[in-house]
Amino acid sequence: MAYPDACGIDIGSTSHFVAVPHDRDAEPVREFPAFTADLQRLVLWLRQCRIKAVAMESTGVYWIPLYEMLEAAGFEVQLVNARHVRSVPGRKSDVLDCQWLQQLMSYGLLRGAFRPSGEVCALRAVWRHRDMLLSYQARHVQHLQKALTQMNVQLHHVISDIMGATGQAIVRAINAGERDPLVLARLRDRRIRANEAEVAASLQGHWREEHLFSLKQALALIDAYAEQIKGCDAELARLLAGLKDHEPPEQGLGTPKRKTPARNAVGFDARQALFEASGVDLTRIPGIDTSTALKVISEVGTDLSRFPTVKHFTSWMSLCPGTKISGGKVLSAATKAGSNRAAQALRMAAQALRKSQSALGAYHRRLCARMDRPKAITATAHKLARLIYFMLTKGQDYVEAGQEAYEEKHRQRVLQNLTKRARHLGFELTPHQPACP
């Protein structure tokens, strides 16, 4: 689609260069500083030039204020991929870049990137901020572990998770002043495999003041980040309540796959909140828990009408095979590189299917037997993306067929292919009847 009333904007950290058609102003290219008052002048100038569509590149985070201001002013703003607007080799400047954007946009040669609605963007921002806080908290867990190791407290050798119930009880007791290994060992949970004597032996350390100080600081920072994460959970619950568009079924959503919440799970019933926002329960898909479903919904939203087909959706997620073909020969079918967060979440979910006794688990194991593991993970993530697309667009629930049904279906498919190949070679397959004892 051509846009004769289009302009191009080259985004910068301190200023933006804007190009409009030459017949709209005596000075068709102007530079505007990045201050709010100057951005308001930019919007007013575009209205005076009768501009309706705007094309810009996603440079860092500098494009966000201008994008939101132009969108609020009623312009059709398209965020274009930098690889699609590479100019002819030669001179390169901010002025030429904005003019090139304006020219390509006017000819209809640019496609806007996918950007969900404002409500979903807010949900996405809070979820990404929560992920960042979790990564910061994990660094201080490492600092805590380092302080214990420097005091030769080998607690991590007898328990699997130092931030579990037993680990936190012992570490907080040490921080409170307790030094007796026998007293500390009595804090172990009954489910710990190591006995009380082994735990006590691991807690015989030398309690140097500088390491105890580091331990105290790390524990305080872990608690501080935990409080901030709780605030993010409350904000996520509020934003999901604003997306409510469906009522939960009268019989409820059924029993969750996990009886206990996963590590770093949100502090509210995200499963029901996601169902009320999307109308489907994505956690019914094997490998997808509430955290994965929440991450996918926060990245793509619940309205996938922007993607005409499931192939467009999986291509946007960089999960489909490549199509590098020349002269009728496939040069490469490798998946294109990408940093899509939803795709990363689905790859993590695909890895969790390695031991799953479901149809998807059997599918993933069959792929692992045929190809190397990274490719099998990507292929399984592609299948998960397809399931999510059909559930969100058609409102269908996922029905688990089971591992046995998948294996039987695969067996029938292999038998059909072998029969067809045998007939092509002039043979006939005959079922083998086991001999009677």
The rough form would be described as globular
Order of H and E elements: EEEHEHEHHHHHHHHHEEHHHH
- Structural class of the helices, strands and pairings? alpha/beta
Return the domain count: 3
Number of helices: 15
Alpha carbon gap, first and last residue: 75 Å
Computed CA radius of gyration, to the nearest angstrom: 29 Å
* Largest sheet features: 5 strands, mixed
Pick out the low-confidence regions.
none
Share of helix, binned: 40-55%
**Chain-averaged pLDDT:** 88
Q: Beta-strand percentage?
A: 5-15%
Largest beta sheet: strand ordering: 3-2-1-4-5
User: How many distinct beta strands?
Assistant: 7
Helix and strand layout, with pairings?
Layout: E1 6-10, E2 15-19, E3 29-33, H1 36-48, E4 53-57, H2 63-72, E5 76-80, H3 94-106, H4 118-150, H5 165-176, H6 181-185, H7 196-202, H8 209-242, H9 270-278, H10 290-300, H11 310-316, E6 324-326, E7 329-332, H12 341-351, H13 359-370, H14 373-394, H15 403-424
Parallel strand pairs: 1-4, 4-5
Antiparallel strand pairs: 1-2, 2-3, 6-7
Q: Your description of this structure?
A:
This protein has three domains: 6-106, Ribonuclease H-like superfamily/Ribonuclease H (Nucleotidyltransferase, domain 5); 119-241; 243-253 and 261-394, no CATH class. It is globular and about 85 Å long. Strand 6 (324-326) and strand 7 (329-332) form a beta hairpin. By secondary structure, it is an alpha/beta fold. Helix 8 (209-242) packs parallel to helix 9, helix 10 packs antiparallel against helix 12 (341-351) and helix 12 crosses helix 14. It contains 15 helices and seven strands.
